[in-house]
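Readers of this paper often ask what the protein records in our data store actually look like. The remainder of this section carries one protein's record, kept here as part of the documentation.

:::
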Amino acid sequence: MKDAEWIAKLLRHGLLKASFIPDRNQRELRGWFAIIAALLKSVQDNIIGFNKC
């Protein structure tokens, strides 16, 4: 049995809980945090590179 079929069967029998889907504001905030984290990582990498010179 394929995974999708198995999951569908469990769902039909009420054995799965609904997944949490964040609202638009939460998704947007997560996106901003991901961008900030990537920028901070880039700055950190550059500082480490400068210190090696």
The two ends are 57 Å apart (CA to CA). Residues 22-53 form one domain.
